[in-house]
Amino acid sequence: MAGRQRILTVLNQDELDSQPEPALERGVFIARETNAILELFVSEYHPSFYTPLIGKSLHNEWKPETYIRFALSQLQEISERLAHREQLDVLADAAWNRHQYDGIMGKISRIKPDLIIKTTRHDNRLNRTFFNYTDWHLIRNCPCPLMLAKGEDSWETRAVVACVDPSHLHGRMEALDNSIIEIAQWLAYRLKGELYIFHAIDFMPESVFRLWQPGSNYNTYKKESRQEHETLLNELLKPYGIGSQRIHILEGGSAETLLSFAQETNASLVVMGAVSKGTLGNLLIGNTAEKVLDALRCDILVVKSNPLEVKELNAELVFS
């Protein structure tokens, strides 16, 4: 990632004074460690401004433009404090939009940030994360790397897990794997953390293998399959100079093995990919992807293979 980076941190105006904003904490932390430009942004809308129950005098005094000026003044106060305290370049902006994601996407198109950070709340009591409609829209359609900050982890370990799938070498998915590796390696290096390369092999069940290849040896099949994956993974990682001690190939389903591996390594961040799909993307997002995103306690970074081509609302998340 050449040149000075620009980080767009999306905040919720209503929560600035009521509870910590993990997205703000991550934005300051990453900007400080990488010398990036940090921009704070809110996209606000309140239907109460348009209800006839509000008196005419209030309408005259308290309009959306007035509210946005108020919100922007709050952000500017925060940005000035951060700039002075952290010695950072901090900008602030606010927009009025009926749908928060439209405001965010508009801001993205204007400034083309290198990274977007947004808070999403994780409830440890329920062991799940509450993704709202804006979160899912950004996961599917955000054209640049999107970090969802969950709040419980303070990045003490600075462990970064990159999820790759070398079985798609020389195809579109290889470009996605390259994007995942590049940003994960860059973050781990700049944040002085540990990089882990994760890949899961979900072998065919032995009962199915017996029907498919009667008389063949199941253990031989597993051994040869693993060797093939190892060869492809080494070929994928060769340009990046990543040592074998950082490569972890686990046996089992992608979702289950990733969750256990993230917990075992005490990961601060999991980097995974999203590729544009057809109408089935919604089903895939709502199935395995939702399970993993819900259960992971650490922050998540969603990366696209070719940001300029991502225009659909549908995407499949890739974990293996």
UniProtKB/TrEMBL annotation:
Judging by the UniProt lineage, the source's domain of life is: Bacteria
- Keyword terms, alphabetized: Cytoplasm
Q: Does the keyword ATP-binding apply?
A: no
Show the GO cellular component annotation of the record: cytoplasm
Which Pfam families is this protein grouped with?
A: Usp (PF00582)
Cellular location(s): Cytoplasm
> Is Cytoplasm among this UniProt entry's keywords?
yes
| Entry function | Required for resistance to DNA-damaging agents.
Family statement: Belongs to the universal stress protein A family.
Official protein name in the record: Universal stress protein
This chain's source organism reads Nitrosococcus oceani C-27
